[in-house]
Write a structure and sequence with these properties.
The structure holds 2 protein chains of 2 kinds. By secondary structure, chain A is an all-alpha fold. Chain A is built from 3 helices and no strands. Chain B is mostly helical. Chain B is 69% helix and 5% strand. Chain B has 10 helices and 3 strands, in the order H-H-H-H-H-E-E-E-H-H-H-H-H. Chain B is globular and about 55 Å long. The mean pLDDT of chain B is 82. The chains are: A mainly alpha, B mainly alpha. At the A-B interface, helix 1, helix 2 and helix 3 of A face helix 3, helix 4, helix 8 and helix 9 of B.
Chain lengths: 94, 278
């Protein structure tokens, strides 16, 4: 498909960052599997934390991006999801 | 050493499950969790590993799916809001639910998803010449967009948002309760109920499953149920399998993707039912 759409390639930076995060997580997790204790446990915790935090960063980025572009219909939703996740954390910790 | 105790076996199992799950748009843990339970792992331990696999396979597939303009972020976050709420509630309730009740819900939902995918043939959304200059992707401010099929732009617009939100909340609840991610409910919801093309539905589901996993893992972490060492082995497999599944996903036709997903759903239902009643 030949395209002159200015939106083409708009997620290239995000795609590169997500690929870097995936590679970093894979390296951390693989290293955690082969290294002895206690280093393996620390790396495993970091790898799991990265997986859990990437969606948080992605939601924040989407929300800010849509606010800047005036997309009021959808800009609040990523922050509402983050609020729901935070409530889960708080309820469990309480 | 049993399979759930061996890091290499855990990684291999997670890789196979993630490759199949990402390709069919049902997530990496829909097959992994029942398999782990069938191999002797307690459901309460398998659920957090399942959500780690879901997060890992979603992350692995994210880059390629973004470049292919297959993810509809606005639609994704719209259905994810009730799903995340359901996942948090499900994770909080998961400690005390009888296994057989959960297995019945899982098996029934998987069969419904499989039947809905198999009863429709052909491609619902067709290419339109008026959109030939569109590079694909979501249209800002709407739940519509287009995607590329055989070199042509195919426009679409999500329908029936309200029932889609209800179904998504159920998917989130199931994910929080069992750790299977809920993609086997979300993808049919998007493609069959909301008339989103199946490739867009699968990619958007993969995006949302990462968020669902985070919501559930936040609660599991607070409950002290995440064992990071086996989780690392599962992550290695999930990342490798998820990347492989995403590569295949961009190269198969929508009807083939639906049939693959439906076949996987039937398999999941049988495994879950056997586990509960055999």
């Amino acid at each position: 498909m030949v395209s002159n759409d200015p939106r083409q390639g708009r997620f290239e930076t995000a795609a590169r960052l997500l690929r870097a995060a995936a590679v970093a997580t894979g390296v951390l997790a693989a290293t955690a599997v082969v290294l002895p204790e206690p280093v393996d446990h620390t790396l495993a915790v970091v790898a799991v934390a990265v997986v859990a935090l990437v969606p948080v960063v992605r939601l924040t980025w989407l929300g800010i991006r849509w606010i800047r572009r005036g997309d009021r219909t959808f800009a609040w939703i990523p922050f509402a999801i983050l609020a729901v996740i935070s409530v889960g954390l708080v309820v469990t910790a309480a | 050493m049993t399979v759930p105790d061996s890091p290499a076996a855990l990684a291999a199992l997670a890789a196979i499950a993630a490759a199949l799950g990402t390709n069919g748009g049902i997530g990496g843990a829909t097959l992994l969790v029942p398999a782990l339970v069938a191999l002797g792992m307690a459901p309460v331990d398998a659920a957090p590993l399942g959500l780690v696999a879901v997060g890992g396979s979603s992350l692995a597939a994210a880059s390629r799916q973004l470049r292919n303009n297959l993810v509809h972020h606005r639609l994704g976050v719209s259905i994810e809001l009730p799903a995340s709420a359901g996942a948090v509630v499900g994770a909080l309730l998961s400690v005390g639910l009888p296994d057989r009740l959960l297995a019945g819900v899982l098996a029934g939902a998987a069969l419904v998803g499989a039947v809905s995918g198999l009863t429709r043939t052909g491609v619902r959304n067709q290419p339109e010449a008026a959109f030939s200059g569109d590079s694909g992707g979501e249209w800002p401010g709407t739940l519509g967009g287009s995607y590329e099929l055989d070199g042509a732009a195919v426009p679409y617009h999500a329908r029936r948002l309200a029932p889609g939100l209800v179904a998504s909340s159920v998917a989130g609840l199931v994910a929080g309760l069992s750790g299977v991610g809920g993609g086997f409910l979300k993808t049919p919801t998007l493609s069959e109920l909301m008339h989103v093309p199946v490739r867009v539905a699968a990619a958007t589901t993969s995006f949302t499953l990462g968020i669902t996993a985070t919501a559930g893992l936040a609660v599991f972490a607070g409950q002290g149920r995440i064992d990071a060492d086996p989780a690392a082995a599962v992550l290695v497999g999930a990342l490798a399998g998820g990347a492989l599944g995403a590569v295949v996903q961009g190269r198969i036709s929508p009807p083939v993707a639906r049939r693959v997903a439906a076949s996987l759903l039937v398999l999941v239902a049988v495994v879950v039912a056997l586990r509960a009643w055999w």
